[in-house]
Write the structure tokens for this entry.
Amino acid sequence: MGVVTSLPASDLRSSAPGNAAGEDVLTRLVGLIGGDMAACNQAIVARMDSQVPLIPQLAAHIVAAGGKRLRPVLTLACARMCGYAGDRHINLAACVEFIHTATLLHDDVVDESVLRRGLASANAVFGNKASVLVGDFLFARAFQLMVADGSLSVLEILSRAAATIAEGEVLQLATQNDLGTDEARYLDVIKGKTAALFAAACEVGAVVADRPAVETAALREYGTCLGIAFQLVDDALDYAADQATLGKTVGDDFREGKITLPVLVAYAAGSETDRQFWRRTIEDSEQTDQDLDHAMALMQGAGAIQATLDRAAEFAGAAKQALAVFPPSAYRSSLAEVADYTVSRLR
Amino acid sequence: MGVVTSLPASDLRSSAPGNAAGEDVLTRLVGLIGGDMAACNQAIVARMDSQVPLIPQLAAHIVAAGGKRLRPVLTLACARMCGYAGDRHINLAACVEFIHTATLLHDDVVDESVLRRGLASANAVFGNKASVLVGDFLFARAFQLMVADGSLSVLEILSRAAATIAEGEVLQLATQNDLGTDEARYLDVIKGKTAALFAAACEVGAVVADRPAVETAALREYGTCLGIAFQLVDDALDYAADQATLGKTVGDDFREGKITLPVLVAYAAGSETDRQFWRRTIEDSEQTDQDLDHAMALMQGAGAIQATLDRAAEFAGAAKQALAVFPPSAYRSSLAEVADYTVSRLR
């Protein structure tokens, strides 16, 4: 087949939220791993092919939309930091990206999103049916690639991550419209839906390099904390960015009644009148055109965005701390910078 | 957790289409495998559990709805026919059922179905979002179970099957509303969406018993042909059964403009007026309340249902033929009966 023959050169220059310094951080990390990222991109394109043309067409739509490919970069960089000198990490990084892409395709169906990374989402272009099925294909293909690699440890890590992601997404569904959700439960949601794959992506880097348990655990912890920080900032961005830089529809979370930390902080700090507003808009899903602006004003007043970013900074700090078991290296410094960058996306 | 503590005793007495003789066939096969099916049902219930209550609730809805559990029965029976004396086949049969259940959940979202096995479909009760995500969970859980089993051969067979199922489903989407689809392409669709999992379910039985390639290939062929026959009869039933015995909405395929063999035969045999009818209803999706009856009358006139069943009987014959490499046994006889039963569901 070969519907997609190459990926845009600007792949790693995210079209998603970012700033010049942030892009420098990622560019530096990608620079350290040399040709690994290009090889991974080639593997992604080659392995998403199928005799059924709609599959690479739809997959190309979401893959070509760019994104930072942060997760596979983490796998590649962690493997190299651990001294890995082979090439198994290339395909395994592609697996990580396939699992991520599959969840994005299903998320967009679940969320009824129309924008993804600044472009029309796959479900908006190809329909929900195709998005569900191509997500299934990419998920299965990821497992085929892992089986070909042959490591049961890697299969264990990524199959567990896949189950945990789904659990986090279902838990998110269960907390939707429920202002009785507490921060611990919210953290459970984002640990599952986002941090589990970050953790697995990093851990696989140490496993492929055959490093001892203390290092696999450290990279798992780094990935978990990084993923939590990343999602906290994403949830802040949904109320604090403008659409052009966000690359998705602003206020999506609000319209869907999604329970995120900015909402929980503003609700907890609110007057009875404020709480009535939150109950009407989030719990009862009764919203008017002005409500998003009012929600953002209430958050401003409650310092909810800042509180969310402060929590993100705590987790970014914990992520950097987890790297301490590794000797100093350009990789370690760069992975630490990524943790800072994750938070700086909004500051 | 433990939302589901037991499965109905009548599990294997299908609420789906069948006749007394057909149920006898399945009951006989289940009788041969002794306690294996009960052990498999226990594994299914235990392994679909999660700390997120909505997951076992939704999974229980579809699992408790019964169905014949034909695919796991095939894994269990094929393993025993191959002389396997251990218990690994129990969990692997559960994996097969999980993959099947995941595809059902996603199919019902894709098809916008409201009935499944005579009950409200999961998406109609729990919503599309939950159905997509719990499908993802069951799929991931299946891989976790396979990883715990530890056979890369089994992982290879079932990950390939999962990718092929998705490809078949996407190809079906691409042929929808397209009367230019030929029988070969239609067969590609059902080989993917249905026969691939039948084939894998049977092949795994020989692999777990560590049998030589000629036997794994024979069971793969048996499963492929059985699956094709099964789907051909399903496609005939959609135009030839009454809703009470079908356990799903009659005429779903017609309303969705799905291209199945009964339609292709009737279209090929039709007059120009008939073909205009098919183009309007299937290609242009313009249907009135009387159109399904007229479609069934045209099929009657063209012998389309009979032609479809004849094709199914051919594949059932090929399935039985594939069993010839095995020495005569009660298992072999019973698996041959299953092939006949598959076709007899409608005759």
Notes: Residues 213-240 of chain A form the longest helix (28 residues).
